[in-house]
Amino acid sequence: MPKHGKKYRKAVEGASLLDRLPVEEAVAKSVASAFAKFDETVDVALNLGVDPKYSDQMVRGACALPHGLGKTVRVAVFCKGEKQAEATAAGADVVGAEDLVEKIKGGWLDFDSAIATPDCMALVGQVGRVLGPRGLMPNAKTGTVTFDVSGAVKEVKAGRVEFKVDKAGVLHAPIGKVSFGPEKLLGNLKTLLETVNRLKPSSAKGSYMRAMSVSSTMGPGYKVDTTLIKKFLEG
């Protein structure tokens, strides 16, 4: 068993981390037990009833959170011609085509999200081995390969979260900062869960949302009673 610090032990004092809670209570407890000096991020871990080794059971997508993520997102856009001015006007931090690819080949990676127009994807492919492992590769399924660069940049800047199940069928995603308070975090979480629900593969059998927990960066994870998720989404 890992040894936890004094602040962590105090945060979980009197709480049973094995209890399965209503969604609202799990979020409230994760906010209340945050103890770090910085504004911790609240994360959700969702175990889905899918087997990602089958391509038709891969759950991957993105959604714009109504209350954002509470952080500054640096956006790079691969595009040409008039699209470059459009991307810059929308707030992109760096815009380019061949020049941007060469910059990345030289080791520059000072951005958090990348967007590309379809006609630039062959160029982007040249640095795919660099961007892919870092989760920076533009992808049509998450809306980051598009000719609507203005809309994509604004959405990413406002607070857009991308997600993808791992090999174990677990999806991890941030839903905002502790300082947001439970109400805004629940609003973001509802949008995320609705999106994940819509992406349920038709080939997935049995229970879809099998297990879920909510935690702040440094705090404990609070388990959610998944039988109450439907009620939360309908509320």
TrEMBL record:
Keyword Ribonucleoprotein: yes
UniProt keyword terms in alphabetical order: Repressor, Ribonucleoprotein, Ribosomal protein, RNA-binding, rRNA-binding, Translation regulation, tRNA-binding
Gene Ontology CC terms, in alphabetical order: cytosolic large ribosomal subunit
Gene3D superfamilies noted in UniProt: 3.30.190.20, 3.40.50.790
GO biological process: regulation of translation; translation
A Pfam family assignment: Ribosomal_L1
Subunit text: Part of the 50S ribosomal subunit.
HAMAP family registered for this protein in UniProt: Ribosomal_uL1_B (MF_01318_B)
Name of this chain's protein: Large ribosomal subunit protein uL1
Lineage: Bacteria, Pseudomonadati, Thermodesulfobacteriota, Desulfovibrionia, Desulfovibrionales
The encoding gene: rplA
